[in-house]
Specification:
The complex is a heterodimer of chains A (181) and B (491).
Chain A lengths: L8 H28 L1 H8 L4 E7 L8 E7 L12 E8 L5 E5 L10 E3 L4 E3 L6 E3 L4 E3 L8 E7 L2 E6 L9 H5 L7
Antiparallel strand pairs in A: 1-10, 2-3, 3-4, 4-9, 5-6, 6-7, 7-8, 9-10
Chain B lengths: L1 H14 L2 H8 L2 E2 L10 H20 L9 H11 L3 H28 L8 H24 L3 H14 L6 H9 L6 H33 L16 H10 L3 E2 H27 L24 H9 L2 H25 L11 H23 L8 H4 L12 H12 L22 H4 L2 H10 L13 H12 L12 H7 L8
Antiparallel strand pairs in B: 1-2
Classes of the chains: A alpha+beta (181), B mainly alpha (491).
Chain lengths: 181, 491
């Protein structure tokens, strides 16, 4: 069966078979990888963030910090209550707001507001923040994450849609840690 | 009996498994390995089988949907006959499996079982440890309650710190921009398909190698492992002095596995299932998320790492740990096996055990977290208020109203975030107290903008009373000199 150059017909056919499977494998791998990466690629195409209303300005008395909730703009019908997100709204004066993410800048636990001592405190590892969101003490490396906001038709709108994390804080896109609109 | 024999023969003619099974069961093992120290591997396998059975039973009811998972867990607990018991078996089985895997690992480490020729058995064992921890973490997510939700937030926050690809890693982990249905679905797929698949594959390879290479012999001080001679020595231990695995050694494995299964069942009946805790509603923020027992040490570690070092340690630390474990059999592939001649190995185990134990103990008490309701639920003990002036009592009121009590304890009541203040007046002078309250520092927020001068005066007046009756409060000696008096008048 062996031919002169050392390769039999059957060995060549095995190689052809392996080659065919490799080509098909690559063809299948591309859609599989794209499918798996869709949470990342979607962000580049459509984006996750949009402007959402937190309600009328009258809900947020000047000088106070209130809890507000919104429905995340990107949800599926089976997300249930996980699609509802909370945030802290501080009305500094008539037209100036600060909207803080609920997530501690350390590891994302929900911070609580204490109006008596004007501090945000985190229950997980003891992070604390002043009323303007700046870091007061504990393990966080930075102040609370802030959402961009704007006021339209007597309503407070924020740009939200992604969970802020130390690696991608919402405020970083806005370019500053103080309020911006 | 003859019928059973006939049926058996009919199958064996076709399967031809009888002889290899008998050979495997009766393979000779070193005499001393028929020991109670050698039962942990088989016990881990037994618990894994229990986890597979109970896991499949739970999957009959459980709904892996963010909107419904919590309700389906309630149905399992309350609406299905003995659903609570199956959940409890699975939950306690998980804890037992992790504990046994850890004990097994310590045992094979101290017995030098990772040395030649069992390096690969050890490496697959390390992978099995990681995969078991992966099962525990993903399983904790499937118990989709507040702890699971915020635990995912902690995971995402850690993932986001990876340089460059951090934000991508978060979205791949969560399956989208937030913790929601896609997140639970992918953790379900991991917990039910991907990780168990890896676990079964690794267990098979691990077990195959134990059979092919033989169980590690009982380490004797002075019996040195050398690549050139080991195989011959082991052959003599097994074939000249050895005993058949069945029945000489196997009865201890069977008894211990039965004892472990019984213990899991007793814990399941007595303690019941784990949770679920509160609903996974992120708008309910009155929660203090905590991980399950085997991740508590990590939770504590995340408190104590200095902020600047946290990210590098979090990202590089685990990688170093895994590399050390994987490299161990190549660094120490020969030499002494006995723990009696390996003091550093014994000390390493003790150090790791004490560290993990201490961190776990701390995480169970979370002294670093403010006691969020101390200011409203824990009054200042009466002895701190009796015989005080009106100003000092007003200071005590400020102490409560401004939530100082959340972080500072009096008479062991209140938070432990900051130092206890029972005798603070001995440590700090009046000026130092004022400075500390107004400017903060040393991990304390500054209260300057939040206290009126009158409140600060009252608060410091109260703090000045916090000293034992027979000891005078701290004073500034130089101030007394400057004022020309011998002593500053105490308040």
């Amino acid at each position: 069966m062996n031919s002169e150059n050392g390769m039999s017909r059957r060995a060549a056919l095995v190689k052809l078979g392996v080659l065919l499977n490799s080509v098909v494998g690559v063809f299948l791998a591309v859609p599989i990888v794209r499918y798996l990466l869709s949470p990342v690629t979607r962000e580049k195409k459509v984006g996750y963030e949009s402007w959402l209303s937190l309600g009328g300005l009258e809900q947020f008395p000047a000088g106070q910090t209130r809890l507000a909730t919104y429905r995340n703009p990107v949800v599926n019908s089976w997300d249930g209550e996980t699609g509802d997100i909370a945030c802290w709204v501080r009305r500094v004066d008539d037209q100036t707001f600060q909207v803080f993410a609920i997530n501690c800048a350390h590891l994302g636990c929900p911070v609580r507001w204490f109006a008596q001592s004007n501090l945000f405190m985190c229950p997980c590892h003891g992070g604390a923040y002043y009323q303007d969101g700046s870091r007061a003490s504990g393990p966080p490396e930075r102040g609370l994450f802030q959402y961009q906001y704007k006021i339209e038709d007597g309503k407070l709108l924020i740009k939200a849609g992604e969970m802020p994390t130390p690696g991608q804080p919402v405020a970083s896109k806005a370019g500053g840690k103080t309020t911006c609109a | 009996m003859r019928l059973i024999q006939k049926v058996g023969d009919w199958f064996d003619l076709r399967l031809q498994l009888g002889a290899p099974i008998r050979e495997t069961a009766e393979h000779p093992v070193p005499r001393e390995t028929a020991s109670w120290f050698y039962v942990f591997g088989s016990a881990a396998l037994t618990v894994f089988m229990l986890q597979m059975v109970t896991g499949i039973l739970l999957a009959l009811i459980y709904v892996p949907s963010a909107g419904e998972a919590w309700n389906s867990l309630q149905t399992l607990n309350h609406g299905v006959s003995l659903g609570w018991f199956i959940r409890a078996l699975h939950g306690w089985g998980s804890n037992f499996m992790l504990a046994i895997v850890f004990i097994h690992m310590v045992q094979v480490f101290l017995f030098g079982a990772y040395k030649f020729p069992r390096e690969l058995t050890w490496i697959v064992g390390v992978l099995l440890l990681l995969v078991t921890l992966g099962m525990a973490f993903t399983g904790q997510v499937l118990r989709f309650d507040q702890d699971a939700y915020w635990g995912l937030g902690i995971g995402a926050s850690i993932a986001s710190r990876v340089p460059v690809i951090g934000p991508w890693a978060v979205k791949l982990m969560l399956g989208g921009p937030i913790i929601a249905g896609a997140t639970l679905s992918r953790f379900f797929a991991l917990h039910v398909f991907v990780v168990p698949g890896l676990l079964i594959a690794f267990v098979s390879v691990h077990l195959l190698m134990v059979l092919k290479l033989g169980i590690n012999e009982w380490p004797m001080p002075g019996r040195i492992v050398r690549r050139a001679t080991y195989m011959q020595e082991y052959h003599e231990l097994t074939h000249k002095q050895g005993v058949p695995f069945v029945p000489n050694a196997v009865w201890k494995d069977i008894l211990f596995s039965g004892f472990i299964l019984l213990s899991i069942a007793v814990c399941a009946v007595y303690f019941g299932p784990f949770g679920p805790g509160g609903q996974p509603d992120p708008t309910i923020i009155q929660t203090a998320p905590r991980p399950d027992f085997f991740f508590l040490w990590l939770y504590a570690l995340l408190t104590f790492l200095p902020p600047a070092a946290e990210t590098p340690i979090l990202l590089i630390g685990p990688a170093i740990g895994i590399v050390v474990l994987l490299a161990l059999p190549f660094v120490a592939g020969e030499g002494e096996k006995s723990w009696k001649r390996r003091p550093i190995a014994v000390l390493t185990i003790l150090l790791v055990a004490v560290s993990l134990g201490t961190l776990t103990h701390l995480a169970e008490h979370t002294p670093w977290s403010p006691v969020m309701d101390a200011w409203s639920s824990q009054p200042i003990p009466a002895e701190f208020l009796q015989g005080r002036t009106a100003l000092e009592r007003h200071g005590a009121l400020v102490f409560q109203a401004k939530q100082c009590h959340n972080c500072h304890s009096l008479d062991n009541k209140g938070g432990q975030r900051g130092p206890a203040l029972d005798a603070v007046a001995l440590r700090l002078t009046e000026d130092q107290l004022i400075r500390q309250v107004i400017q903060g520092g040393g991990n304390m927020p500054a209260y300057g903008k939040n206290l009126s001068p009158a409140e600060t005066t009252a608060l410091v007046a109260f703090l000045e009373t916090l000293h034992p009756a027979n000891q005078k409060p701290a004073r500034n000696a130089s101030q007394a000199m400057a004022l020309g008096t011998s002593e500053v008048s105490p308040r």
